[in-house]
User: Which sequence fits this backbone?
């Protein structure tokens, strides 16, 4: 049955009316019209739909709405704000260090997987701003890219980590 | 001599600052903001106005008939246009492909964007500039020959206060000029933008999540649709055979309802989750004939097909093989492989009585329009098709089928419908890259010269009729007529070398008896060089010659030598006979080299890998890929294309194989059809062999065949055994090592 649920999304409380068994992904893309989380497999296999739930990378395509009520949800749209908070900045930057690194290394091709890659890499860099190559590869292994950008994504994450460390 | 541009990060150091707005369809609307009024296309190719519009603010819109697929075509083609127009990159933009706006340059495939599209855009821009300068000469009273242009500002009197701009000369008015193609183009030595690694205009919005993909498009009042099909296709000729549908099985799932025409079944609902659930819960029974050979009997059945043969190349006399010092014979197998874009295809359709609007991720808006018109009972000009980028497709994935299904659902529902294919729809109903069986026999003389070469290849063509049309209208399955990319490719079957006696024989297999097929990035080539380049390698081995050296002494021409040397130098290749360091270690390493391309350009590659002889796991350590694509307009883009090809080739050689039994495909997701993961990604080195003086050729698929061959040859170097089939799964590897 459709019911009213309040979500804490990117720092703002928003109300949605949907069946509480609805996967969070469809609420974010259809009810709230977000562009970040996006459908890829619906099976939690690819990482396209990932969001941060209380800082933990979560596959929104298999996470029912009922499971996230009251939790902090951060999507791609909220990453600049999250970064500003973590660094005590006055306002969110236009691009996070990771986004700027993706631009500087020209790492993105079709870019559809970029949402999930950024969510996962953000989770990693919040925990460890100086990850080894192996730690990056391990963290990112559950996120697929069909265009074959893994080497450039690796380079971008390393570049972003150095930027973040430099700003610390 | 060739100019080698090795992969260097400082190529990209200029990146990041230049942001050109890439116009996108506004969410929830299809209104276009540029001055041209949409009307059924294609716009006349022989009019300058069909290609270029100059605006009052001294900017230009270039109408391009090629799709941005994440390969950077939109940026590179704008570089070409801006170069000829003497505009800055921040003064020029393009619009999305649209049958009501953009010219018909054919589909964005076969790496044609720069090869065919580049010269058209270049000449149109040059001719527009010529017309603008004539106007300026009159207005400024300065002789034409004295005029100069910078950033669309025309001057030439020596007085800085005397100038005009393109915007003043013609801003937002039409040229009304025939496009003759006769205006002189710039000398490559004067290029300011072309050949520069400019940053791609689509990356910043893709990075910050403001880019709107096909999957983000919405229309007011639309329903969400899903198709309902068996999980995994059967034989193409069998289509789908519905036995019964129990519509009551979805009662209570919101307002979800079943739509059906013939054997085409779909559901629509106001809420997307309702449509998803209804499609999964709908109780149907299908008739699924046991028509397929299954993976086990695939190649036996292909080889036993009734003869439908064509000689692709024949020169000299193969009987001289009796004089050869060494001979080799090799049979190899390439699997069906899937496109499977990271996001399944999506389409949005609004079909009315006498018009239709369809948004989809087609690589060919005009081709898709024709098929849609036929399906809907409309004339092509009544159908408007707009391209919106989805996830990278790498050939003919399900975009035509998805567009047709969305349109049919909209027609049946009487409302706009957004259709998102589910993962199993895309995996299970793809038009796969066809399987290939190849047999090669080759020989060489004692002094290391190739003497004879004979190749026979079996495969079917591409599917012409989409499943939606087949199931809804009963149109019989049919293949495309023979075309180059559907058959064995002389360029990669011995074409890399001087071989006096050669015969290539193509065996066409009747495709309707097998899985659906279509072009997948570098169609057939990976399988062709997997077979052929292993034979070349074996001759070198038997002669005791280093495989690079053997190729060099038989090389066909300078262009092939350029990529052979490019890859070898990047890899710091040290000559030695292959498989001379075999060890009893559990993990052994090897390196291999290969040459190949698609239908143009030249590719060379070196692979370094390790094989775990206990587990059968192959790990590719480093791939070096060199491409000569003539003039490379944007080296940064091509570097990315090479990296992408190398990673995808690793994926296709190690993991990718469509599994099917006698009734249907069973590769339905990323677990049953695994691709390369982050942990496994090898190091990559991209080498661009730049020829500024040459016309641009394709660079999006021309090093994969070389890389596939290099991987196969590296396996031999490591183990002394030859793989006869790919992907190199642990089971296959362990069998080969026995």
Assistant:
């Amino acid at each position: 049955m459709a019911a009213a649920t309040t979500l804490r999304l990117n720092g703002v409380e928003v109300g949605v009316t949907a069946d509480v068994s609805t996967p969070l992904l469809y609420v974010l893309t259809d009810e709230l019209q977000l562009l970040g989380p996006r459908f890829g497999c619906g099976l939690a296999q690819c990482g396209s739909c990932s969001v941060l739930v209380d800082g933990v990378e979560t596959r929104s395509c298999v996470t029912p709405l009922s499971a996230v009520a009251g939790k902090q949800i951060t999507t791609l749209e909220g990453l600049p704000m999250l970064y500003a908070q973590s660094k005590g900045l006055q306002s969110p930057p236009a691009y996070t260090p990771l986004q700027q690194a993706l631009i500087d290394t020209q790492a993105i091709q079709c870019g559809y997987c970029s949402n999930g890659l950024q969510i996962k890499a953000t989770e990693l860099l919040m925990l460890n701003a100086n990850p080894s190559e192996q730690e990056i590869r391990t963290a990112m292994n559950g996120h697929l890219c069909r265009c074959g950008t893994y080497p450039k994504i690796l380079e971008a994450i390393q570049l972003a980590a150095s930027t973040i460390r430099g700003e610390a | 001599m060739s100019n080698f541009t090795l992969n260097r990060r400082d190529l990209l150091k200029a990146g990041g600052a230049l942001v050109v707005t890439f116009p996108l369809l506004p969410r929830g609307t299809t209104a276009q903001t540029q001055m041209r009024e949409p009307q059924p296309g294609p716009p006349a190719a022989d009019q300058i106005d069909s290609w270029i519009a100059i605006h009052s603010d001294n900017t230009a819109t270039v109408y391009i008939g090629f799709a941005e697929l994440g390969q950077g075509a939109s940026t590179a083609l704008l570089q070409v246009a801006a170069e000829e127009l003497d505009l800055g990159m921040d003064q020029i933009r393009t619009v999305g492909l649209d049958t009501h706006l953009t010219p018909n340059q054919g589909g964005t495939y076969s790496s044609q964007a720069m090869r065919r599209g580049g010269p058209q855009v270049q000449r149109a821009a040059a001719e527009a500039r010529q017309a603008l300068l004539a106007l300026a000469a009159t207005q400024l009273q300065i002789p034409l020959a004295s005029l100069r242009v910078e950033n669309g500002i025309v001057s030439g009197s020596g007085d800085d206060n005397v100038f005009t701009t393109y915007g003043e000369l013609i801003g937002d008015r039409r040229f009304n000029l025939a496009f003759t193609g006769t205006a002189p183009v710039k000398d490559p030595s004067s290029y300011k933008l072309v050949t520069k690694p400019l940053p791609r205009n689509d990356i910043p919005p893709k990075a910050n999540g403001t880019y709107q993909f096909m999957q983000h498009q919405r229309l007011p009042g639309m329903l969400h649709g899903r198709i309902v099909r068996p999980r995994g296709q059967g034989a193409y000729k069998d289509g789908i055979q519905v036995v019964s549908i129990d519509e009551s099985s979805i009662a209570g799932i919101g307002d979800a309802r079943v739509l059906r025409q013939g054997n085409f079944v779909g559901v629509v609902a106001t809420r997307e989750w309702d449509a998803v659930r209804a499609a999964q819960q709908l109780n149907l029974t299908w008739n699924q004939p046991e028509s397929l050979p299954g993976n086990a009997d695939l190649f036996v059945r292909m080889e036993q097909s009734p003869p439908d043969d064509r000689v692709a190349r024949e020169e000299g006399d193969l009987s001289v093989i009796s004089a050869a010092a060494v001979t080799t014979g090799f049979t190899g197998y390439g699997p069906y492989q899937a496109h499977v874009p990271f996001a399944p295809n999506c389409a949005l359709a609004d079909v009315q009585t006498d018009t239709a609007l369809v948004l989809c991720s087609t690589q060919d808006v005009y081709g898709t329009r024709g098929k849609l018109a036929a399906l809907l009972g409309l004339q092509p000009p009544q159908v408007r098709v707009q391209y919106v980028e989805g996830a990278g497709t790498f050939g003919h994935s399900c975009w035509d089928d998805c567009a047709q299904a969305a349109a049919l659902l909209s027609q049946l529902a009487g409302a706009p419908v957004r259709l998102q294919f589910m993962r199993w729809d895309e995996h299970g109903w793809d038009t796969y890259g066809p399987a290939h069986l190849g047999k090669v026999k080759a020989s060489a003389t004692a002094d290391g010269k190739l003497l004879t070469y004979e190749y026979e290849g079996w495969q079917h063509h591409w599917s012409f009729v989409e499943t939606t049309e087949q199931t809804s209208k009963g149109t019989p399955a049919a293949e495309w007529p023979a075309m180059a990319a559907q058959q064995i490719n002389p360029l990669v079957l011995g074409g890399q070398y001087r071989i006096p006696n050669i015969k290539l024989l193509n065996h066409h297999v009747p495709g309707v008896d097998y899985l659906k097929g279509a072009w997948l990035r570098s169609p057939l080539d990976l399988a062709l060089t997997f077979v052929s380049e292993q034979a070349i390698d074996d001759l070198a081995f038997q002669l005791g010659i280093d495989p690079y050296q053997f190729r060099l002494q038989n090389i066909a021409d300078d262009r092939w030598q350029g990529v052979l040397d490019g890859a070898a130098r990047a890899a710091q290749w040290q000559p030695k006979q292959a498989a001379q360091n075999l060890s009893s270690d559990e993990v052994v390493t090897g390196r291999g080299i290969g040459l190949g391309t698609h239908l143009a350009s030249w590719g060379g590659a070196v692979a370094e890998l390790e094989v775990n002889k206990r587990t059968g796991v192959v790990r590719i350590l480093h791939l070096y890929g060199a491409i000569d694509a003539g003039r490379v307009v944007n080296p940064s883009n091509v570097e990315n294309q090479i990296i992408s090809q190398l990673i995808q080739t690793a994926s296709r050689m190690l993991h990718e194989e469509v599994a099917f039994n006698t009734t249907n495909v069973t590769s339905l997701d990323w677990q049953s059809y695994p691709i390369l993961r982050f942990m496994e990604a090898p190091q990559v080195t991209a080498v661009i062999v730049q020829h500024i003086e040459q016309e641009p050729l394709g660079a999006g698929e021309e090093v994969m065949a070389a890389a596939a061959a290099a991987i196969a040859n590296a396996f031999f170097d490591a183990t002394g055994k030859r793989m006869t089939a790919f992907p190199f799964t642990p089971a296959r590897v362990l069998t080969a090592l026995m």
Observations:
- Chain B touches chain A through 62 residues (CB under 8 Å).
- The radius of gyration of chain B is 27 Å.
